[in-house]
Amino acid sequence: xxxxxxxxxxxxxxxxxxxxxxxxxxxxxxxxxxxxxxxxxxxxxxxxxxxxxxxxxxxxxxxxxxxxxxxxxxxxxxxxxxxxxxxxxxxxxxxxxxxxxxxxxxxxxxxxxxxxxxxxxxxxxxxxxxxxxxxxxxxxxxxxxxxxxxxxxxxxxxxxxxxxxxxxxxxxxxxxxxxxxxxxxxxxxxxxxxxxxxxxxxxxxxxxxxxxxxxxxxxxxxxxxxxxxxxxxxxxxxxxxxxxxxxxxxxxxxxxxxxxxxxxxxxxxxxxxxxxxxxxxxxxxxxx
Length: 288
What we know:
This protein has 288 residues and is of the alpha/beta class. The protein folds into two domains: 6-212, 2-enoyl-CoA Hydratase, Chain A, domain 1 (Alpha-Beta Complex); 216-263, Lyase 2-enoyl-coa Hydratase, Chain  A, domain 2. It contains ten helices and nine strands. The strands form two sheets. Strands 1-2-3-4-6-9 form a six-stranded mixed β-sheet, with helices on both faces. Strands 5-7-8 form a three-stranded mixed β-sheet. Helix 3 crosses helix 4 and helix 8 packs antiparallel against helix 9 (234-248). It is globular and about 60 Å long.
């Protein structure tokens, strides 16, 4: 796999996806929005990857959406009909941008984000779609859209409100201020804070490899149930997990787990089945 915005390293069953435009603060250019879903889709579809780590390079995790995504707005559409067309195109484009991050949530395997420096604007949308977040001590999080007269629309609010208290979300959104790594840890946005980028990556990759030793279908089921429970009642979720286990419960894998532990060897679990690839790239230019 070759991409403009990402470098990918595979180690056993863990994929390490690194943003690779540090000279541009890893801003999210148009190619980014097409490439990330392709990266995640290829890794998830293979069935052999059991955990994905997202990290970045340079002083900042990401500066957020690059202005080039907005295309050429020097010649805006005019008239009622054209305004409607422009609004419809904008809406369709936002939905495609939202999918770029929703694919992280929809992946069958856990996605862990390792964040250094600034996680700004769309970066917050991105990391809130991940399963877990880890940060260096100098990291910070900013809902930057407020500061440029926009309302964040690529995933921050529906996800952030499930992660930290409502009042804190409102404060961050209404003021556009930066949340430090220590504050993010205090409110539960990140799982841990590390002194250095190197220490963070070592720890997060070690955790990803630990996850990769577990039965893939069991981890997939855990992710599905956790996500489902966010938007459903306890009763609905209990029913759903019952249906899930009725469909996927495996005595063979349970026995393999027990025998491997008893004999001191690594368990050998079935891989997730490969799945069809998603559609090819789409044009994400907003206001051309």
